[in-house]
Amino acid sequence: MNEKNENSNLIRKKILDIVYKSQASHIGSSFSVVEILSTVYKCVDTKKIENLDIDRDRVILSKGHAAAALYVILNQHGLMSKNDLETYYTNGSLLGGHATHNVPYVEHSTGALGHGLSVATGIAIGLKSKKFDSHVFVIVGDGELHEGSNWEALMLASHLNLNNLCILVDNNRLSGIGNTHACCSLDSLLVKFEAFGLEAFDVDGHNENEIYSTIKKLKKINKPVAIVCNTIKGKGVSFMENNNVWHYRPPGTDEYQKAILELLKE
Q1: Each residue of 195-239: pLDDT tens digit?
Q2: Residue 169 sits in a domain of what CATH number?
Q3: Closest-CA residue to 44 (of 72, 2, 77)
Q4: Pairing between β-strand 58-61 and β-strand 225-230 as defined by DSSP bridges
Q5: At the N or C end, where does the chain have fewer CB atoms within 10 A?
Q6: 2 in any annotated domain
Q7: Is pTM beyond 0.70 here?
């Protein structure tokens, strides 16, 4: 893979388009997770996902408020039509602001933060019981790691040696209410994951090559894996980067046009 993902800004432009059209929230969270989600879907067999094969890899977006990014990437991989994508967050659409399993190929409804990892752990247990070689990838936000259920799931995953479970943290250091360090420090995530018995890695969350090469190590590791992906909330648009107002606020017309110019410039 190329170190620079040429599609990242195209994905962000599509996210911007559907968020602006619908006046939905969470564009900052969707922008930060782009390379993580994009890389995960390049590492799984999307044909098995499309066929709903029982031994397919599972992808769970625990930070379900970044659903716009998930839906754009599903569209990119042929798992969602353009017409459906353009209904995002509009009246009568299945595509709400949080990921839901009512949407084809979305494994679990999320957005009630802190639950996705527990569900992913249960799915990993089930897949191992069937002796399948598939993996479960769960993308969590650093803010939702304040929820204790995550750490209960990690204890069980380590105890059961779930080497088919991979946690990717969108570590943008901002939750909905502010800086995660100020709310309740998570430092050092790497040390915490290792203390819970996981193999842990630290990568640039906007470098697909780093994420990809780390995921490719999974089959050689005999324990659960956590990948701390260091990201920037609002990545790709200068006035959105590290600005938590974009957790909730949709772009107006002037902001939309400025953002488009920045994304097209790259």
Answers
A1: 999 999 999 999 999 999 999 999 999 999 999 999 999 999 999
A2: 3.40.50.970
A3: 77
A4: unpaired
A5: C
A6: no
A7: yes
